[in-house]
Amino acid sequence: MDVLELARWQFGITTVYHFLMVPLTIGLSVLVAAMQTAWVRTGEARHLKMTKFWGKLLLVNFAMGVVTGIVQEFQFGMSWSAYSRFVGDVFGAPLAMEGLVAFFVESTFLGLWIFGWDRLPKKVHLACAWAFSLATMASAYFILAANSWMQHPVGVEFVNGKPTMNSIGAVLTNNTALAAIPHTLAGAFSVAAAFLVGVAGWHLWRRRASSDEHREVWRSSLRLGGWVGVVAFAVLAITGDTQGKLMFEQQPMKMASAEALCHTEAPASFSILAIGDVAGANCEDVKTFTVPALLSFLAHNDFSTEVKGVENLVGEYQAKYGSNYPNDPDLGPLAGKPIDYVPNLPVTYWGFRAMIGFGAISAGIGLLALWLTRRGRIPGGRWFPLMVLGGIATPFIGNSAGWIFTEMGRQPFVVAPNPSGVEGMWMFTAEAVSKLSVGEVWTSLISLSLLYLVLGVVELYLMRKYVRGGVDAVMPPPRPPDQGSDSDSDDDTLSFAY
User: Fold this and answer.
1) Chain-centre distance of CA 380, in angstroms?
2) Cα–Cα distance between 197 and 294 in angstroms, integer?
3) Smallest Cα–Cα separation from 344: which of 284, 257, 427?
């Protein structure tokens, strides 16, 4: 493999790995804050136990996310220095804002929340939990604004051959970002919901035949996760439809590759499943099961809109952006070669379906868990813990598949052209890579992969330890009455600290 391909593998591996932690942190932080709110309002012990248990798992996951996330920004300078120089003026603002939120607001209020038990008044301590959770979403907003600019560059002008930002407002209110943010946040809640259903369902089933003082903790957690998961999937469907319509306008090749739509159709059918090799752009050997005219509706809210196919779009892209790469030695073996404007169709086609399919499965498991645990019931079959624990993986897979589709669907561009934006405002991925040797990239790829493997083992060990330990593992014995705090707690038996 050459430097470009290795650099893409490295960025893909580290990004997907990091994103396993991100949605769980975002979704769980809000749900933990909601649990603590319920405790402050009602004083019920189960809500405090829920806050402590899920809060401990949140902290483990957040710590791993911070460690793995630092590498992401380092890679812009490591393997993608040409890209960094090209977009630096634009990316500097949202990434700086994200850094301020992540490393100052998040860390400050998280620290106050961790060490503020029994030291801060209840409502002040609760406010710290909400400040942290809202900061995680704000951090995601700035990252998504930066990523959305790569999908649809706005708010810039060309100065000396480089994009220079002339409107931070346009960058932060990019319609691509405004559609991606609720979609991504809904995906995060889907992950957190499945996590609650899986872990709580396992605990509920494990002690079904014996008296369990924490049974209401698991039942409340499971049912909270089930309802959140169902609502999150509904939001995913609505916001995904909005994104699809923007994709039809802004990145028609991505729309065509999501369907492996080789030839222009009017009306265009939505492909449910394909049999055959979708890798070829002519689709001669592919048979698909379709819903007539549905793709036209998803693209433009009517059942007759023309949707252009891959073969037709290739000619349009060649006319707009050139047929060959520049004859530049920095492009290595691609210098002067024809540009392949067709993304990896098997990845985009099946990635799009994996995103939808695994999201639906996750919501379905949550809905089934709600039904099976109604009116105090506890399922007794051995299939139940397998179902809910396996369900934890489904939204993770769906989120990862969605991001892989999003990023690979815009290839060969690292900054996709805006059809109605500044002329010439795009960058090919082949032009973005650093001037490195194959050996250097192999070294960093192997080193980072091994490091992430070790971190993954550590996270799984800690998560397993605290999950198996249950509530008792995170709730130290109550303090003696004569050592109570000066906080406004009105229940000495519930005065605990991490």
Assistant:
1) 34
2) 33
3) 257
CA distance between the termini of the chain: 49
Q: Supply the pTM of this predicted model.
A: 0.90
CA distance readout (Å), 445 to 6, 79, 458: 8, 10, 20
What residues contact 131, with CB distance under 8 A and at least 6 apart?
Answer: 105, 109
Convert the pLDDT of each residue in 62-106 to its tens digit.
Answer: 988 887 877 777 777 788 888 988 888 888 888 888 888 877 888
Residue 160, burial from CB neighbour count under 10 angstroms (0-12, 13-18, 19+)? exposed
416 contacts 341 by C-beta, under 8 angstroms? no
**Cross-strand pairs, 291:** 270
Contacts of 294 (CB under 8 A, 6+ apart): 269, 270, 303
Structural contact between residues 10 and 445, judged by C-beta atoms closer than 8 angstroms = yes
Q: Where would I find the H helices in 373-418?
A: 383-391, 393-408
Measure the CA–CA gap between 96 and 98, rounded to whole angstroms. 5
Cβ-Cβ contacts under 8 Å for 130 (sequence gap 6 or more): 33, 37
Q: Please provide residue 116's backbone torsions phi and psi, each rounded to the nearest 5 degrees.
A: -90, -5
Instruction: Check residue 276 and give its pLDDT.
Output: 66
Burial 199-234 (b: 16+ CB within 10 A, else e): bbbbbbbebeeeebebbebbbbbbbbbbebbbbbbe
Would you mind telling me the total number of residues written for the chain in this entry?
Answer: 498
d(C-alpha 337, C-alpha 345), whole Å: 21
With CA atoms as reference, report the closest residue to 471 among 56, 37, 39.
Answer: 56
Higher-pLDDT residue of 378, 369? 369
Each residue's pLDDT tens digit, 433-488: 988 889 999 998 898 889 889 988 999 999 999 999 888 877 766 555 554 444 44
Tally of helices (H runs) and strands (E runs) in the chain: 16, 6
Q: Which position has the token pair 């605290």?
A: 466
Distance CA 270, CA 459 (A): 40
The reported pLDDT for the residue numbered 476 is 64
Rounded Cα distance between 324 and 319, Å, is 11
Q: Does 235 score more than 70 pLDDT? A: yes
- Cis bond upstream, residue 395 (ω within 30): no
Q: Mean pLDDT for the chain? A: 87
